Amino acid sequence: MVRTAVRTAPETLPTASLDPAGATPMMAQYIEIKAANPDCLLFYRMGDFYELFFGDAEIASRALGIVLTKRGRHGGAEIPMCGVPVDRADDYLSRLIALGNRVAVCEQTEDPAEAKRRGPKSVVRREVVRLVTPGTITEDRLLDPASANLLLAIGRRKTGEGATAYGLAAIDISTGRFSLSEVSGGDLAGAIARHDPREIVLSEAIHADPALARIWQESRAAIVPLAQAELEPAAAERRVREQYGVSTLDGFGNFTRAEIQAAGTGLLYIARTQLAARAPLSVPTREEAGSTLAIDAATRANLELTRTLSGERTGSLLDTIDRTVTANGARLLAERLAGPLTDLGRIAERHETVAYLAEDHALRRAIRETLARAPDLARALSRVGLGRSGPRDLAAIRDGLMAAAGLGAVLIQAGTVTAELAAIAEALGAADPDLADTLQRALADELPLSRRDGGFVRAGYSEEVDEARLLGQDSRKVVAALQARYAEETGCRTLRIKHNNLLGYFIEVPQSVGEACLKGLQREFVHRQTMVDAMRFTSVELGDLERKISGASERALALESAIFEELAGRIVEQSSKTAQVAEALAAIDVAASNAELAVELDWRRPEVDDSLAFAIIGGRHPVVEAALRRAGEPFIANDCDLSGETRGRIRLITGPNMGGKSTFLRQNALIAVLAQMGAFVPAASARIGRVDRLFSRVGAADDLARGQSTFMVEMVETAAILNQATRRSLVILDEIGRGTATFDGLSIAWACLEHLHEANACRALFATHFHELTALGDRLARLDNATLKVAEHRDGVVFLHEVVPGIAERSYGLQVARLAGLPASVVTRAGAILKSLEKAERGRPARAKIDDLPLFAALAPPPPPEPPAEDPLATLLDAIDPDALTPREALDALYQLKRERAEKR
Ligand SMILES: Nc1ncnc2c1ncn2[C@@H]1O[C@H](COP(=O)(O)OP(=O)(O)OP(=O)(O)O)[C@@H](O)[C@H]1O
């Protein structure tokens, strides 16, 4: 299966078992380094290339489409090799990482000349300086600006008889974000799907747990199991303490053992991949259990929240609602959409801000215009902390801080704002204004990518740099100035300062002037050479100038580098404040984006409360509506009321194919998600009693990638809903039971409805083509029937997409089939078959079939065991009187018994 092949790290590389004996010295070094990094592709630096050998070369050449060549022999066989140029390594790296590979970057750590000095056969010293893995990258070129790049570490603890809790550490080293949470075993898959990590690190024991195998198989992340021995609980705690330089974790709040285990595992892995550098992570925040709306992986996929079923962002809900103007904001919006809240206070606070910004157009515009100038502060900050930054990262911090200061001023000017905006304004003001100011003074307008290129310090910031540059870049001018001065002092207009390899810089004058100089005209001149018609001199000043000129460019670079270090140091000192500024920028971008969306599309503020209401008036599906709008067609808004005082309601929707059942179901789930993430909703009004869990299932969705029977998948997922949905949950079931024979499917759908109504007592929408189920409307008190209106014409039907109370009479399957282009002969034949089938059924209407069934059979106590049926063997035995039998009769009786027994089998 493609998914598995893409996800897992490369299969064990044959290189791992290579014998260094008999290898050339360089190959022996390669084999040794490779042996220490067996599960990574090794980028081995040789001059201007990173070379890959043996199995690594084969994997990389296949993955990157680069030529596989050979280099020498080892153990009698040719060594496969391929290489990537160092200056384009990032492109290749990103492609390998995207395929789930991990790469060890091995650099030359000494000058080749030095190696030569050790002896003719010595090999240049090389070391792995970094492991590049999907979850630990920080370079902009390797990262998607609009998505978080999470490493998820998992720990666990026993919480009781047979129960286990899992600690999750979600770490984004590209921004320093670090959060901890704990979930039950049943919620683990959903929590992983919510975080959508690029890489998961965990103990071998958790990885090998058969109960969790499916999670790892289905995850898009690269999975890295670590040996149990490395993950001792005490070591995990120590690692967390060391990361933050504290002697106890008490000040951080009450983390559970599983959370600390997860944090320790994550930190261990990060330390291993970053080698020398320590990742600048923020202090972990703890997320309370139940603080987000639980949405399992299947529901997320089905509702296409952050990506479509085919894995694209385009066409997802996120794509449709994103009006953010910064990468930082886009990431936060995705995070909020993936984890809507359950806390009513926090939800209302976000709605309040959206309402405020939706109303104040001028303020919203000012905020968005200022934000559009703010670069990705969080990622630049992280690179500075890791010592992996360039001048443009410093500029990003400068511009980010300046935008923040500008925004703070805009908010202060706005006066009384909402509580959330006031908190944002305060965080924006937290940064030291001196830092932005210093960066502004220090950095030039045009900046090189790398600090090694120099030229990034603004002229006028440092006298030393200016002087060094002047000498380096403008040495001719300096020499010319000195030449002009000497010419004036000597009165010799033909005096020249020249340069050759033998003398270096020298002063040349005609013979006569030279003689005068020797006699004391110019005391400081020191004679070097007499030519036929000229004399050459040097001077102390010229000697100094020469030394300065030759060291100038190196000195300029060194001075710039020192300034860079100093600026980076100041940024690191302030990093926690700057991180807060970055978070505030993201939060205001998201709020303004939601407000912009609400204004643009006339979305309304929902009311989320503690009731069991679900009353939507004029609801729309945001993605379908957007698609129809592009096609110039209207979307028909629909109401939906599932409100219950103490228990929810169920709406059973029958209707024609193509009528809009699936759209209606999903739009209501999406409205709940949007409301609880703190956004406005596509409806005229919405009152929603806080939803704790959201479930959405589509009957027998094709799931070939998983390699499971489609019906089996449908049943496993339905079982999860019936077992987990609470009174507060919202359940969306679309054609459950359609994946099997009609009567099996009908009975399963029927029993599921009863269970949802009686046991789960949740709010639910249930779409079906089993029209027989509508009879349940009379029997289940809180079940209503609804259908989608259709206008019938002589030559076909028109779907009006309007949800109305009632029952669909027909499915209009044949009409849809004709619309789809099924050959006319097939449609006509199907029509004839349908007629005769309906005739046969008419004698026994659907309603009668349901009426025959006992109500709530699924929930009734099991019937008492039936009395055993009569056993013919026992009857035969009872009839035998051994004392009355002859030996012959006894033998016959035995044969008869055996015969009877054989028949029974
Ligand atoms: N409320 C609406 N307003 C306008 N067009 C709609 C509406 N709802 C659905 N549609 C259109 O009808 C198409 C079919 O909708 P949908 O897939 O929801 O139907 P369905 O009843 O679930 O069909 P089936 O039973 O065949 O799965 C949509 O792609 C959309 O273009």
TrEMBL record:
A GO MF annotation of the entry reads:
ATP binding
The UniProt record lists the DNA mismatch repair proteins mutS family domain at 729-745
Q: Does the keyword Amino-acid biosynthesis apply?
A: no
Q: Which GO terms describe its cellular component?
A: cytosol
Q: Which residues are listed for ATP binding in this entry?
A: 655-662
Q: Name one GO biological process term.
A: mismatch repair
Q: What is this protein called?
A: DNA mismatch repair protein MutS
Checking CDD domains in the record gives: ABC_MutS1 (cd03284)
Q: What is the lineage of its organism?
A: Bacteria, Pseudomonadati, Pseudomonadota, Alphaproteobacteria, Hyphomicrobiales
So what does this one do? This protein is involved in the repair of mismatches in DNA. It is possible that it carries out the mismatch recognition step. This protein has a weak ATPase activity.
NCBIfam families, alphabetized: mutS1 (TIGR01070), PRK05399.1 (NF003810)
Q: Which family does it belong to?
A: Belongs to the DNA mismatch repair MutS family.
Q: Does the keyword DNA-binding apply?
A: yes
PANTHER family on file: DNA MISMATCH REPAIR PROTEIN MSH1, MITOCHONDRIAL, DNA MISMATCH REPAIR PROTEIN MUTS FAMILY MEMBER
* Keywords, comma-separated and alphabetical: ATP-binding, DNA damage, DNA repair, DNA-binding, Nucleotide-binding
User: Which PROSITE patterns does its entry note?
Assistant: DNA_MISMATCH_REPAIR_2
